[in-house]
Amino acid sequence: MKRVTIKEEVCIGCGLCQVYCKVEHSKSKDPIKAYLKENPKPVSRVRVETNKPHSISIRCQQCKDTPCVNACLTGAMTLNKETGLVTHDTEKCIGCWTCIMVCPYGAIKPDTSNKIVVKCDLCPDREVPACVANCPNEALVCEEVAQ
Amino acid sequence: MAKYVIIGGSAGGIGAVEAIREVDPVGTLTVISEEKVPQYSRPMISEYVSKEATLDTMKYRGDQFWKNNNVKTLTGRTATKIDFTKKQVELDGGDKIDYEKLLIATGGKPFVPRMECGEKYGIFTFTELSSAEGIEAKLEQSKSAVVIGGGLIGVSASEALVKRGIKVTLVELKDNILNLILDKTASDMAEKVLTEAGVTVITGQTVQQILGKKDNDDTVGGVVMTDGKEIPCDLVVVAIGVIPRTDLVKETEIKINRGIVVDKSMQTSIPDVYACGDVAEAHDFLIDSNRLLPLWPLAHLGGRAAGYNMAGKKAEYEGGTVMSSLKYFELPVIAVGDVNPEDTSDYEVLVELKPEKTVYRKILLKDNRIVGFIFLGEIEKAGILFRLLKNHVDVSTIKDSLLSEEFGIVTLPEQLRQEMFVVN
What is the mean pLDDT of residues B159-177? Predict the structure, then answer.
């Protein structure tokens, strides 16, 4: 199972992971258009938290006990047994926010314009997730974790 | 003989099937359900009535679920009796099924209070697909509805009906809607959103009588409130709450308090018999005691724990508490735990209120532990607090940051933060 983790001591809180996440999950995949023109606005699945001098970049950690999957009212959130990844079906999601209530990382975000939640999908179209590939300080690591 | 028998095919029954199959792929498994298609999401009944979901999109698990899990389904059938000595379930029609391990996941039934109403067409509840289909059939000839009960189900029903162009009056006996899960401030904000969407909210009263139409007494024509005022309507939805569906085991030796009492393995007072969901009284991690908590996610979690134990893998139900997430008319609210204590003298209460932005956040602490919170308007970090509450974490060193802009994983004590990023 893959997941993106953070080396907290080298995160400088620049926020580029949020930017690249948003762009990767936009329609145009262009930063200017993604930020200024697209409607509905793309939502980053990453959150940079800062509490000086610390900063940290948060996204889904693919918990083994899958609280979001167990809490989901509709069956939109599932655990893919082959990949070990928590997968979200946007078609089935009704934006009830129950998964947000139980996510210990606060890593599931409301996408209010589409009335659904969004979470890290590890960028299925890329070999290395956009946040990891564009982290200037190599604070983000996409690692293989035992399932 | 079926090795496993499950009575009920909703959130709890499905959770148990999934857990049993993780451990035991071959043991014979029978699910008995009164529903023809048991695997639909009950919380989505509101979406079904508002036409935001169809029968197909409201399926909690796909049509192949039972087949893929090698389950024999007895749908549209009712379990009528359990013989715990012979380890046998009797069905309508008299067939008997032996079991080695049994799960009672019969759910809840809508509580309908005594009212003067007689047998009238147009009175519905809101917890089963059949009620939703009944409402759907009546909607075309309906212009207005009265919803009795201002809790989760009543507000859901009101929202769905308003979205279908029905004029809705919501009646709540207490002084505030959603009073079991919100405090007055949050309830007032929710009521404002409802009112703006066109719902007429009446509190402090209830319906004492349901009237017939002038030309046809067999069809709903209006209601009489406790103050004697009449409200004309074509439809009444009774949504006061659900009570455990314990009828099947009422006259047996199984221990029932308000629901069937289970231990943390979800086992009842009778060996090899388990219960979960709305019919059960299971662990609440906040009050550290058993309690009725008729909530979909907890039914599923309880079903999973029961399933593991039935299949021989030890598992402990992690428990739940009063926990709700709402999205009525696009107002996001997450409320967990004890948010409305009568006497706050033992509590520390942190509040942030920005009415102009429709943001309200409140956290209640007792002995430096979070015992309840309401996040209204801004909900993204609610889960971080949920974990602190559930694990009874001492937050004395981070109290000041709980409602700050910076609050997050980064403001948690270092040890806690480190634990969260080791492989779990």
Answer: 98
| Residues B325 and A72: beta-carbon distance below 8 Å | no
- Nearest CA to B271 out of B404, B6, B84 is that of B84
Q: How far apart are the first and last CA of chain B?
A: 39
A80 to chain B, any CB pair closer than 8 A? The answer is no
pTM for the complete prediction?
Answer: 0.96
Residues of chain A with C-beta less than 8 angstroms from the C-beta of B408: 47, 49, 51, 56, 58, 106
Give the integer Cα–Cα distance in Å for B217 and B212. Answer: 4
Q: What are the start and end residues of each CATH 3.30.70.20 domain in chain A?
A: 1-59+122-147, 64-119
CATH assignment of A1-59+122-147?
3.30.70.20
Fold classification of A64-119 (topology level): Alpha-Beta Plaits (3.30.70)
Domain count, chain B: 3
pLDDT tens-digit readout, B289-340: 999 999 999 999 999 999 999 999 999 999 999 999 999 999 999 999 999 9
CB atoms within 10 A of CB B401: 16
A34-71 pLDDT, tens digit per residue, is: 999 999 999 999 999 999 999 999 999 999 999 999 99
Give the CATH number of the domain where residue B39 resides: 3.50.50.60
* Interface residue of A8, A11, A49 to substitute, partner B, most B CBs within 10 Å: A49
The residues with which A47 forms a beta bridge, in sequence order, are: A58
Q: What's the complex ipTM?
A: 0.97
* Number of helices followed by number of strands (H, E) in chain A: 5, 8
Instruction: Provide CB contacts within 8 A for B215, sequence distance 6+.
Output: none
Could you write out the DSSP letters of every residue in B168-180? EEEEESSSSTTTT
Please, which residues 383-412 of chain B have a Cβ atom closer than 8 Å to chain A? 383-384, 386-387, 401, 406, 408-411
Contact B349, B364 (CB under 8 A): yes
Q: B168 is written with which tokens? A: 């809705």
Model confidence pLDDT, tens digit, residues B72-121: 999 999 999 999 999 999 999 999 999 999 999 999 999 998 888 778 99
Which residues numbered 325-354 in B keep a CB inside 8 Å of some CB on A?
A: 325-327, 330, 332, 334, 336
Cis check: omega of the bond before A53, within 30 degrees of 0: yes
What gap in Å lies between CA B66 and CA B202, rounded to an integer? 44
Q: Which domain holds residue B21?
A: 2-108+244-310
- Mean pLDDT, chain B, integer: 96
Classify residue B265 as exposed, middle or buried by CB count within 10 Å of its CB (0-12, 13-18, 19+).
middle
Q: Which of residues 6-45 of A touch B (CB under 8 A)?
A: 6, 8
CA angle A36, A94, B180 (to 5 degrees): 115
